[in-house]
Write a structure and sequence with these properties.
The protein has a five-stranded mixed sheet with strand order 8-10-11-13-12, with helices on one face. A four-stranded antiparallel sheet has the order 2-1-6-5, covered by helices on one side. It is built from nine helices and 13 strands. By secondary structure, it is of the alpha+beta class.
Amino acid sequence: MRAARHRVRAALRRLTGRPRAAALIRRLAPRSVRTRTTLAACASVAVVLLATSAAVLLLLRGNLERTVETGGRAQAKDVARLAATGRLPQPVTLGPGADFIQVVDAHGKVVAQSQNLTGRPALTPTGTHNGHRTYNLDALGEEHHQRVTTVTTTSPTGQVVTIHVGASLRTADAAEDVTAAALAALSALLISTVGVLTWRTTGRALRPVEAIRAEVAAIGDRALDRRVPAPRSDDEIARLADTMNAMLERLEAAGTRQRQFIADASHELRSPLAVLRTQLEVALTHPDPEVRDTLVAGALQDTERLQALSADLLLLARLDATGQSRPTEPVDLVELARSTVAVRSTDSHPVTLHAPDDVTVPGNALWIGRLLTNLLDNAQRHARHTVTVRLSADPENGDAVLDVTNDGPPIAPADQEKIFERFARLDDARSRDDGGTGLGLPIALDIAALHGGTITVLDTPDGTTFRTRLSTSTRV
C-alpha cells in the first residue's frame, strides 16, 4: 500500500509539473546579490509610485468631476428659475461646458430642450453608478463622458418639471490622460534612476567583499601569512575584513605551532628510538650476559620514556580537540590534593600539604589530578629537600588557588614563560635520568586554561612557586 501511494503521488507530481515549475523558478531567480538588490529596490519604488499615481489620479478625477458637476448644477438652477417664472425659452440656450439641456414634465413629455436635442425623446435613467443616475446618451451622438445633473421645479401652472443638464467631461478626461502619461513617464524615469543608482552603489559596496573572497580563495594551507584587503571605511565590510584577518592570524599561529610540535615530537622520538635500537643491536651481539642485561635494562627504561611521551602526546591532542568546552562536574580540590599527595609517599622529597576544609570548582577531576601530578613531578625534579602544596580560596573573587613550591634553584625571569612551551626544557633538566618529556608543564597549562584558569611562576622565600588559579565559574 505504501509503495502504491508513492507511485500515485509521483504520478500527480508529474501531471501538475510543480517540481519542474519550482526548478524553473530557481533557475530563473537571480543569484547575484547586486541583481537581487537592484530588482528589490526597483520593485519597491514601482509599488510606491503605482500607489501614489493611483491616489493622485483619483483625487484629480474627483476634483475635476466636482467642478464640472458644480457648473452643470448652476446651469440647471438657472433654467429651473426660468421655468418657475414661466420664461423658459425654446430652444434653451447652452451655457459654458454644457452639452445639452432638456426639460420634461411629470409625464415624460419634453417641455423644452437645447437646439442639439431637437426631435429627441426624453432622457430616461438606466441605473445608478457611484451614487449618480446613469443615462444612455448614445442616441445623442456624444462619444465622450458626460455628467448629467438633474433639478426639479414647479412651473407657474403648478406642473412639476425636471431639468437635465449634461455637462461635458472632455476637460477632465484630457487632464486625466495627460496626468497619467506624465506620471507614467516620471515613474519610468525614477525607476530607471533608482535601478542605476542601486546597481552602481551595490557594486561599489560589494567590491571589497569580492576582493576579500578572491583573496581568501587564493590563500592555501601554505600561504596563511597572506591577509585580505581591509577597506578604509568603518563599516560592516571593514569589520568583516578585520575578523577574517584575525582568523587568518589564528590559523597561521596554529599552523606554526602544529609544525613546530611535529618537528619537536619527531626530534624527541628520534633520539630515544636511536638509542633503543643501538642498545638492542649491541645486546644482540655482545657475548657477555651481564652486559646484555645492562643494555636490556637501559632499553626498557627508554621504552618507558617513549611510552610516557606517547601518552603525553595523546593527551595534548585530546586537549586541543576539546576547545572551549569546559567540564562542569563539581571537583573537591581538597580531597583530590590529599589523595594525590598520599600516593606519592615514595617520592625522593617529602610533600607537605596545607589545605582548608572545602574548596570546590567545576571541572574534570581526572584532568585536574593530572595538572597537580605534573606540577609535583616538576617540583620533585628540581627540589633540594622539600615540596609544599598549599590550597586556598581567593577572598576577592572566590577562585581556587593551588601553589606547588619547591626549594630548588630559582628560574630566571627570561625562562619563566619558556618552560611552558612544548618540549622546552632548561639546560639543567636535560639528562635522560632526571629530565622529563618536556610536555608536563604545557599539559598543566592547557588543563588550567580549559578550566578558566592560569599558571604563573613566582619567586617566594620558600623557593619557586607554581601558582594555579582555577575559576569557580562555569564560564571560560
